[in-house]
Amino acid sequence: MKQTFTTYFSLFILAVLLWPTDAQAQDPRFSQFYASPSTLNPAMTGVFEGRWRFHANYRDQWSSVLGSKPFRTVAAGFDMRYNIVANDYLAFGVSGMYDQGGDADFTINRGQLSFAYLKQMNDGRYRNDDQFLIAGAQLGFGQHRVSNRLWFSSQYNQGTGFPDTGLPSQEPGIGDGDLTTDLYLDFSAGLMYYALFGDNASFYVGGAFNHLNEPNISLLGGDEKLGRRWIAHAGGEIPFTSELSLLPAAQVMQQLGSFETTLGANFRYSNHDWYEVAIRAGLWTRMTNTVGGKHFDALIVAAILEMERWNLGLSYDITTSSLTEANNARGAFEVSLIYFHPAYTREKVNCPKF
Q1: Number of helices and strands (H, E) in the chain?
Q2: Which three-class secondary structure state does DSSP give residue 87?
Q3: Residue 289 lies in a domain
Q4: Which DSSP string corresponds to 289-308?
Q5: Could you tell me the sign of the dihedral formed by the alpha carbons of 128, 277, 40, 236, in that order?
Q6: Per the count of CB atoms within 10 A, which of 70, 164, 172, 312 is most buried?
Q7: Residue whose C-alpha is closest to residue 338's, from 282, 253, 278, 298
Q8: Distance between CA 109 and CA 96 in Å, rounded?
Q9: SS3 for 323?
Q10: Residue 352: inside a domain
Q11: Structural domain tally of the chain?
Q12: Alpha-carbon distance 36 to 47, whole Å?
């Protein structure tokens, strides 16, 4: 079983490394993608060991360059699962995301409802050897906004040497007040498969398409589409001893010409006490693409503390691209928090660790 898992994961990583790339990602994203199920794949709705789950994520990026106006992303979600027939389950969730950054306070607000159907692929007689195929969908609303803090060359006062926002901008469609898009409908869908091979041994693979309806996000009343984004992700757990295991994972995504790959692994150590405490720590790398070709964008240091029902994760992005000349390798700080509420025995579902 372990050899089969290692083979599957190695093939996926090889495909990731050989995939062509030529730009950078556009949608907000988290380095701890494995700890933000609502932004990763709708098919991850209900995939956890418990009755219900709550997660929250916070990311602060480039404050070393942008000062008091860094890019800040906040996401949170709640999901739960119901047994409907035999060993199949129906799950639903609600989630939201807020992203803001830059001097113009460019802001993205989104709220979604998620649904997933978990179909067991084996007979269910061996609870440590479960296999599930999950189909998920996400329907929500979004809105973009830019504050009225921008100024243009026509508003430059040569006498004072400073911009005068009281002067006309001479930019069509830009007047007083913030620029806001219409409230748009957003639809995403995804699939996921996972298999458990015994205690602390698992494999999962999934993919999703976001913004399938390509909503209009024009700030000036035109027709500007939000490009579709696809995501592929995979990972699992490889046990070394009953206390120590490795959790490798990878995420690949593309939106229009933007492409990004994040891969790495966390080591996990558990003491197997009655009130279980486990520690994870690992290294991750992110590869993006630019006009000049692909490059390694950041090295990510991550640590997670598991305390019975709680997971608290911390990570830091160390910039490795040419931006290091401006930010001295200081990239992004990220926090994740997940709470699992215990399930009733008859509704317990064994799931992989993410």
Answers
A1: 4, 17
A2: coil
A3: yes
A4: EETTEEEEEEEEEEEEEEET
A5: negative
A6: 70
A7: 278
A8: 8
A9: coil
A10: no
A11: 1
A12: 12
Q: Can you give the CATH number for the domain in which 137 is found?
A: 2.40.160.40
**Contacts of 284 by beta carbon, 8 Å cutoff, 6+ apart:** 31, 262, 263, 264, 265, 299, 300, 302, 315
Task: Report d(CA 320, CA 292) in Å as an integer.
Answer: 16
With respect to residue 65, please indicate whether it lies within any of the assigned structural domains: yes
Residues in the chain: 354
- Which domain range does residue 152 map to? 2-347
Among residues 304, 302, 310, the alpha carbon closest in space to that of 284 is found at 302
Tokens standing for 71?
A: 């890019």
DSSP E strands in 172-257: the ranges are 179-180, 184-198, 201-210, 229-239, 244-255
Which own/partner pairs from 274-277 qualify as long-range (CB within 8 Å, at least 24 positions apart)?
Answer: 275/307, 275/308, 276/306, 276/308, 277/305, 277/306, 277/307, 277/308
Q: What six digits make up the tokens of 255?
A: 């939106």
**Closest listed residue to residue 268, CA positions, set 337, 341, 201:** 201
CB of 269 closer than 8 Å to CB of 259: no
Tokens of 189: 């869908």
Report residue 214 as tokens.
């390509």
pLDDT at 331 over 50: yes
More confident residue, 120 or 222: 120
Residue 41 sits at φ, ψ, to 5 deg, of: -160, 125
Residues 239-289: tens digit of each pLDDT: 999 899 999 999 999 998 888 999 999 999 998 776 678 999 999 999 988
Task: Compute CA distances 304 → 63, 82, 162, 211, 282, whole Å.
Answer: 23, 28, 48, 31, 9
Handedness of CA 149, 155, 158, 164 (dihedral sign): negative
Q: Which pTM does this prediction carry?
A: 0.84
Residue showing tokens 């995504």: 253
Contact, 207 vs 232, CB < 8 A?
Answer: yes
Give me the helices (H) in 23-180, please.
37-40, 63-66
Cβ–Cβ < 8 Å for 47, 37: yes
Q: Where do we find the tokens 């000036």?
A: 220
In eight-state DSSP terms, residue 38 is H
Residue 119 forms part of a structural domain: yes
CA distances from 167 to 152, 160, 316 (A): 10, 13, 43
